[in-house]
């Protein structure tokens, strides 16, 4: 269809579409005879995604980065739209909650200015944290060969030691019934989520990496894949019966891990479960002891691997969960790999 028809269908203007074309966000074919633009269904889907992202305030340069693959499928475009809209929705919820707190403080306190400023600063920090996650490990590039590169032996420090045992323990521990919703955060290629098929659960796999999601969908079509991350889960409140995660939480900084637990708490049902298998130390002293041991034994490979990630302090995670009404159990597989299981 031509530009006027495309604009009418998308409820926008030809001028807007030309602007996005000038910015190289869309490249419709042009008739060699009259230079008229011809828009395909793929072009319309791409434009609808651009319009949706602009509607929630995303900048042109950012959109260009998000849509840098011209061969994105319909599912890819819809996933991007859903992820962006959920992030905006969560941001709006934070704003409403902050305003409610401000109103409460103005009622209680004759001079609430300092408190209001502090709440506004907290809101801004939350917004920045949700938008600031960066994939410095390039998981899109790792996706195709990820499973083949999981090495559980042969190094002085094996990050994936006890990998199979840990995933099996998580699947065994998490109690799911047929049709329960189980959310796997950082689903990767689907190795953990697939272990719940025999329980008849509906598995939703969430990952920031589009390439990981593609590999997961190819391996396990029954897993519903969604683009998202720990701090902005593309799920409504109280939607999940269980949330699981393996080898993913150590990719976000320590100050964001508790926010990630809070986001899990948001989407869990009343009797929900959390099961996290990840690289972590028992507490600060345990980390100090282990790093000293590796240093004394000249194991720089281990030290470099640990310092390149954000291994958690298990005690802080379990304390948060217990404080927020969870019954918490832990299981340690080896020096740096643990499982936390928590139930409301």
UniProtKB/TrEMBL annotation:
<dbReference type="InterPro" id="IPR047057">
    <property type="entry name" value="MerR_fam"/>
</dbReference>
<keyword id="KW-0678">Repressor</keyword>
<protein>
    <submittedName>
        <fullName>Putative AdoMet-dependent methyltransferase</fullName>
    </submittedName>
</protein>
<keyword id="KW-0804">Transcription</keyword>
<dbReference type="InterPro" id="IPR029063">
    <property type="entry name" value="SAM-dependent_MTases_sf"/>
</dbReference>
<dbReference type="GO" id="GO:0003677">
    <property type="term" value="F:DNA binding"/>
</dbReference>
<dbReference type="Pfam" id="PF13411">
    <property type="entry name" value="MerR_1"/>
</dbReference>
<keyword id="KW-0805">Transcription regulation</keyword>
<keyword id="KW-0238">DNA-binding</keyword>
<dbReference type="GO" id="GO:0003700">
    <property type="term" value="F:DNA-binding transcription factor activity"/>
</dbReference>
<keyword id="KW-0489">Methyltransferase</keyword>
<feature type="domain" description="HTH merR-type">
    <location>
        <begin position="1"/>
        <end position="69"/>
    </location>
</feature>
<dbReference type="InterPro" id="IPR009061">
    <property type="entry name" value="DNA-bd_dom_put_sf"/>
</dbReference>
<dbReference type="GO" id="GO:0008757">
    <property type="term" value="F:S-adenosylmethionine-dependent methyltransferase activity"/>
</dbReference>
<dbReference type="GO" id="GO:0032259">
    <property type="term" value="P:methylation"/>
</dbReference>
<keyword id="KW-0808">Transferase</keyword>
<dbReference type="InterPro" id="IPR013216">
    <property type="entry name" value="Methyltransf_11"/>
</dbReference>
<dbReference type="Pfam" id="PF08241">
    <property type="entry name" value="Methyltransf_11"/>
</dbReference>
<dbReference type="InterPro" id="IPR000551">
    <property type="entry name" value="MerR-type_HTH_dom"/>
</dbReference>
């Amino acid at each position: 269809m031509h530009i006027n028809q495309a604009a009418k269908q998308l409820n926008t203007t030809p001028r807007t579409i030309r602007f996005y074309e000038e910015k190289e966000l869309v490249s419709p074919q042009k008739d060699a005879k009259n230079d008229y633009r011809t828009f395909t269904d793929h072009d319309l889907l791409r434009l609808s995604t651009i319009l949706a992202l602009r509607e929630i305030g995303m900048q042109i340069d950012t959109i260009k980065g998000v849509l840098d693959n011209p061969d994105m499928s319909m599912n890819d475009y819809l996933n991007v739209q859903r992820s962006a809209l959920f992030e905006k929705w969560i941001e709006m919820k934070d704003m409403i909650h902050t305003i409610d707190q401000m109103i409460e403080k103005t009622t209680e306190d004759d001079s609430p200015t300092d408190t209001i400023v502090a709440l506004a600063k907290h809101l801004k920090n939350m917004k920045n944290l949700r938008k600031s996650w960066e994939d410095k490990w390039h998981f899109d590039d790792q996706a195709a060969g990820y499973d083949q590169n999981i090495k559980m032996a042969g190094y002085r420090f094996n990050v994936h030691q006890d990998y199979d045992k840990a995933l099996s323990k998580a699947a065994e521990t998490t109690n799911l019934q047929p049709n329960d919703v189980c959310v796997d955060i950082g689903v990767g290629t689907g190795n953990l989520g697939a272990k719940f098929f025999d329980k008849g659960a509906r598995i939703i796999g969430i990952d920031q990496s589009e390439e990981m999601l593609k590999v997961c969908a190819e391996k396990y079509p029954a897993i519903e894949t969604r683009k998202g991350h720990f701090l902005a889960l593309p799920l409504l409140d109280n939607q999940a019966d269980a949330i699981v995660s393996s080898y993913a939480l150590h990719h976000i900084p320590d100050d964001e891990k508790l926010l990630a637990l809070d986001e899990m708490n948001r989407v869990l049902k009343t009797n929900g479960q959390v099961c996290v298998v990840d690289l972590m130390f028992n507490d600060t002293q345990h980390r100090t002891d282990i790093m000293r041991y590796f240093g004394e034994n000249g194991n720089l490979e281990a030290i470099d691997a640990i310092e390149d990630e954000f291994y958690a302090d298990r005690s802080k995670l379990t304390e948060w969960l217990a404080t927020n009404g969870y019954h918490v159990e832990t299981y340690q597989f080896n020096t740096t790999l643990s499982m936390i299981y928590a139930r409301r």
